[in-house]
Automatic annotation (TrEMBL):
Catalytic activity annotation: squalene + reduced [NADPH--hemoprotein reductase] + O2 = (S)-2,3-epoxysqualene + oxidized [NADPH--hemoprotein reductase] + H2O + H(+)
Localization annotation: Membrane
Originating organism: Gossypium australe
EC number: 1.14.14.17
Name this polypeptide is given: Squalene monooxygenase
Swiss-Prot/TrEMBL keywords: FAD, Flavoprotein, Membrane, Monooxygenase, Oxidoreductase, Transmembrane, Transmembrane helix
InterPro entries associated with the record: FAD/NAD-bd_sf (IPR036188), Squalene_epoxidase (IPR013698), Squalene_monox (IPR040125)
Length: 323
């Protein structure tokens, strides 16, 4: 799960370098501005060519925001529509690998993860634990500049920084709205129908529409198999003001039924992630089932953690747990 950011960035780079570059190279500028479907009109009905949208991006996560910024730098007029523009609270994509950091540089998105901006922490290697023993695995970074390393942070802070970077370009806009369907004419997607933040039904048109929504998007039925099977859950919590045995390292406990991860997400917070819970039902917090599961299944396998840490986990469980 912690590979989510790098996977999104690498997929974005592939998408941009192949499909999008080829698309725009084969489309001359006059075509972009001619179709009625990709033009906005003024109140008197005249076409406003200055504000014509070339690309609609549905979603403003890692992929959507980075794509909007990259296309905007190329001079494309991009309109991003996102259901909720509040800072997300997710446990996916909190540890950016060095390769992901290099992709940020390649896309011109450097600075998104720097400590001064989002309290990001450098990660230089991992420590693996099993049966009371441990070993360290280092990134191969000797051929790179000193700033190239992993970065761990609050995913939501990282996403917000990327959104701000995208809208810093005058030809990129981000609007809060819920896309309900794609507008299709003669087998061609012409845009999207959506509800504005105020609940008004609206339509947006562009030459190209790209969906960067998540796996639970209501657009899945139009694009692929809409069925999503939930086979298991990961539970996480945050430990505050605690130091791991190795600073600036990810800690991986090879446990059962899944690995358990510890890594810093700020200068004062440690994420505990990976309490794998199979099935469709999550143990209840209110009646103590979750605390019992962590004590009896998870805690006994974390030999390197002190009793003090286990007490902290129990005390912070109700406030900090995330699914």
């Amino acid at each position: 799960m912690v590979e989510g950011v790098i996977a999104s960035l690498m997929w974005l780079l592939f998408l941009y370098n192949t499909l999008l570059t080829r698309f725009f190279k084969n489309t001359n500028a006059s075509m972009v501005l001619q179709g009625e479907y990709c033009l906005n009109k003024t109140r008197n009905g005249k076409v406003d060519r200055r504000n014509a949208t070339e690309v609609i991006v549905v979603g403003a996560g890692v992929a959507g925001s980075a794509l909007a910024y990259t296309l905007g730098k190329e001079g494309r007029r991009v309109r991003v529509i996102k259901r909720d523009l509040n800072q997300p609270d997710k446990i996916v994509g909190e540890l950016l690998q060095p390769e992901g950091y290099l992709k940020l540089l390649e896309l011109g998105l450097q600075g998104m993860q720097e400590p001064i901006l989002i309290d990001a922490q450098r990660v230089f290697s991992y420590v693996l634990y099993k049966n009371g023993k441990n070993t360290r695995l280092f990134y191969t970074l000797k051929h790179f500049q000193s700033d190239v390393a992993g970065r761990s942070f609050h995913n939501g802070c990282f996403i917000q920084r990327m959104r701000h970077k995208a809208v810093s370009l005058p030809n990129v806009s981000i609007e809060q709205g819920t896309v309900t369907s794609l507008i299709e004419e003669n087998g061609t997607i012409k845009g999207v129908q959506y509800k504005t933040k105020g609940g008004r039904e609206s339509k947006a048109y562009a030459l190209l529409t790209i969906v960067c929504d998540n796996s639970f998007s209501n657009l899945r039925r139009s694009l692929c198999d809409p069925k999503v099977d939930v086979l298991f859950y990961f539970v996480s919590l945050v430990l505050e003001n605690y130091e791991l045995p190795y600073a600036n390292h990810g800690h991986v406990i090879l446990a059962y039924p899944s690995a358990i991860l510890f890594y810093p997400i700020s200068s004062t917070e440690i994420r505990c992630l990976g309490c794998y819970i199979p099935g469709q039902k999550v143990p209840s917090l209110s009646n103590g089932e979750m605390a019992l599961y962590l004590k009896t299944v998870v805690a006994p396998q974390m030999l390197f953690i002190s009793i003090f840490t286990l007490i902290m986990m129990e005390n912070q469980l109700k406030e900090k747990i995330t699914y």
